[in-house]
Design brief:
With about 260 residues, this protein is α+β, with helices and mostly antiparallel strands. Helices cover about 50% and strands about 10% of the residues. The strands form two sheets. It has a four-stranded mixed beta sheet. A two-stranded antiparallel ribbon has the order 1-2. α1 runs parallel beside α7. The longest helix is centred in the middle third of the chain and has 23 residues, at about 140-160. The relative contact order is 0.14.
Length: about 260
C-alpha cells in the first residue's frame, strides 16, 4: 500500500535528464577499463568490477523492459518507500541481471541498454504506472530511484576500478534527498535534525520536537558520505571517527537506523 505521508516532489524532466546523463558517464568510463581493472573485487559480495558494470547495464535495460510491458493500474509503492523494499528482492534482481547479461561483452551490453532506455523514455514522455517486481510504481517515482542506483554504483565502480567518474549534480541531489527522506520515514519524529548540505535537511526520531533556534540534536555530513552510510558502504562509527560526520546531542546517533537501504 502506498504511504500516506507527505513526499518530496521532483522535477520530472530534470530527473530524466540526470538518469540519461549519469548512465552516459558510466558508459564512457566502462569503455576505458582494462582487463586488470575489470577483474578487481568491488567489496559487494563476490562481484568483480566486470560483474558490477554488467549489473549497471542491466539497470538501464530493465527500465526499458518495464516500459515495454503493459502499464499497471495503480501505484503500490512510492519512491520514498522503495529503499526499504529493496532488501527482499536483492537476490532475485542479481540473478535476473546475471541471466540477462552473462557472457556478453560490456561495450555491446552498454550500447544495447543505452539505446533501449533512450527509445523507451522518448516513447513515454509522460507518466504511467510500471508493473514491477518490487511493487507497481509511477514512472516518475521509479526514475528517482534510478538516480539512487546509478549514483551509488558510480561510486562503487569508481572506487573499485580506481577511476574518477563524474556524478551529475541533479542525480546526486535526488539520490541524497530520497535516502534522507527514507530515514525520516523509517524513524519518524522531530528530535534529531539531519543536515546534508546543500541538498537535504530532515527531522527524525521520536522525542521532543525542535521548533526554533539551534536544534539540540544535529547530524551533519556531506552527500557522498551520507549515501555510503545509507547504503551500508561505510559504517557510522568509522564515519564519525574519520570526522566525515559531525554529531551533537545525546540523541544524535544514527547507528541503529543505518543502513536505510541494503
Amino acid at each position: 500500500m502506498a504511504s500516506r505521508t507527505r513526499t518530496r516532489t521532483y522535477d520530472a524532466a530534470k530527473i530524466r535528464a540526470a538518469v540519461t546523463a549519469q548512465f552516459g558517464h558510466i558508459t564512457a568510463a566502462v569503455r576505458e577499463l582494462t582487463p586488470e581493472q575489470l577483474g578487481r573485487g568491488t567489496g559487494l559480495g563476490d562481484w568483480t568490477v566486470a560483474d558490477l558494470a554488467a549489473h549497471i547495464a542491466w539497470i538501464a535495460d530493465s527500465l526499458a523492459s518495464g516500459l515495454a510491458r503493459p502499464p499497471a493500474a495503480v501505484p503500490e509503492l512510492t519512491a520514498v518507500e522503495w529503499p526499504s523494499a529493496t532488501a527482499s528482492l536483492a537476490g532475485k534482481i542479481a540473478e535476473a541481471a546475471k541471466e540477462t547479461l552473462e557472457g556478453g561483452p560490456l561495450p555491446g551490453l552498454y550500447e544495447h541498454a543505452g539505446v533501449r532506455m533512450a527509445e523507451a523514455l522518448a516513447a513515454n514522455p509522460g507518466s504511467r504506472v510500471l508493473d514491477l517486481w518490487i511493487g507497481d510504481m509511477t514512472l516518475a517515482d521509479f526514475l528517482v530511484t534510478r538516480t539512487v542506483e546509478l549514483v551509488v554504483h558510480t561510486d562503487d565502480l569508481g572506487r573499485a576500478a580506481g577511476v574518477d567518474i563524474p556524478i551529475e549534480r541533479q542525480a546526486l541531489a535526488a539520490c541524497t534527498r530520497l535516502l534522507a527522506d527514507a530515514l525520516a520515514l523509517k524513524a519518524p519524529g522531530g528530535s534529531v535534525e539531519v543536515r546534508i548540505p546543500p541538498f537535504a535537511v530532515v527531522q527524525c526520531i521520536e522525542g521532543p520536537r525542535h521548533t526554533r533556534g539551534t536544534p539540540p540534536n544535529v547530524v551533519e555530513t556531506d552527500p557522498l558520505t551520507w549515501i555510503r552510510l545509507a547504503t551500508g558502504r561505510t559504517d557510522w562509527a568509522t564515519a564519525v571517527e574519520d570526522a566525515q560526520v559531525r554529531a551533537s546531542g545525546e540523541r544524535a546517533d544514527l547507528a541503529a537506523l543505518l543502513p536505510v537501504m541494503s
